[in-house]
Amino acid sequence: MKARRETRPVLVGDVAVGGGAPISVQSMTTTNTGDPAETLAQIARLHHAGCEIVRVAIPRADVLAGFETICQESPIPVIADIHFDHRLAIEAAKRGAAKLRINPGNIGSSERVDAVIEAAGEAGIPIRIGVNAGSMADEYRDMDWPLAEKLTASAVAFCEHFESRGFSDIVVSAKASSVNATIDAYRALADQVPYPLHIGVTEAGTALSGTVKSAVGLGTLLVGGIGDTLRVSLTADPVEEVRVGWEILGSLDIRRRSPELVSCPTCGRCEVDLIGIAKEVEERLRERRTPIKVAVMGCIVNGPGEAREADIGIAGGKGIGLLFAKGQPLRKVPESEIVEALMSEIDRLESAAD
Q1: 244 and 335 inside one domain
Q2: Which of 52, 112, 276, 303 is 20 to 30 A from 90, alpha carbon to alpha carbon?
Q3: Count of domains forming the chain
Q4: Residue 213: inside a domain, yes or no?
Q5: Which of 352, 350, 351, 330 is nearest to 341 (CA)?
Q6: What residue numbers bound the domain in which 89 lies?
Q7: What is the pLDDT of residue 268?
Q8: What is the CATH number of the domain that holds 313?
Q9: Residue 150 falls within a domain, yes or no?
Q10: Which residues in 98-206 belong to E strands, given as ranges?
Q11: What is the pLDDT of residues 33-55, one digit of tens each?
């Protein structure tokens, strides 16, 4: 894995982004921002799942009162997501936003963009310059260039304008629904700007297709040392975005928030309900916070041997399970007791770690 790209640090509330800070996981609410109780309830669920920064849409002026309450009561920093109307961004900055997310390409004239920059400067908050395929700088939108080049050129031009106004508290994103275009744009940006990069594949799709596209795109960038904060965009419960984000970070051993589950593909040798056991263990591990490796294996072939690095694991037999730790057998238990026996051993490991 390539060394992490060095960037300027930016503070989003109390969460550092870039400058060597841990890569943070974001999501976005799907509720009515004008209903702070509903939105805060969703933020609480996101926070519990591991969301560290949350973005909230401000589509109209009549939700600003709710947004202010959300900022005051949220357990994590709140980003105001603004399109088209620069006045909403200015007001959000006054009402407690920890950061503004705008696409200068759809905010309008440079005077309007400058008014947003001034409001963020007065509030002491950063701005994410978010560029996507639908909103680029006018001078690049209709050019016969590859999409990644247009995204990069637009983002760089906007950054240069912000700097010309004396504002450098910037995070940048350049997203597309194309995985390849997204990767190419971020690689180019990483070479051209010093700012933290918010990475993601936009409009990635539903839970399955969106997870695959996001894992490929974000994983490729992260392996290349690119990315300071991320969002997995799914047409699904946003809690799933957070879970997938952590899985991507954990799979690369960048950050791990919960135990790692290792399970083998089932085959004709398996004589226990491996799929059911693995699903139950996975669900119960979601509430655990000790970063241990847990193996659920179907037979002795894929048991203590291949999973010898697991802290604790189970290998199936004919209606039984063999518990093992670091490749060494512990004891056999009936199939009906496999999950409880495994969780008891995990309890023991967690107690020893405290």
Answers
A1: no
A2: 52
A3: 2
A4: yes
A5: 330
A6: 10-251
A7: 83
A8: 3.30.413.10
A9: yes
A10: 99-102, 127-132, 170-175, 198-199
A11: 999 999 999 999 999 999 999 99
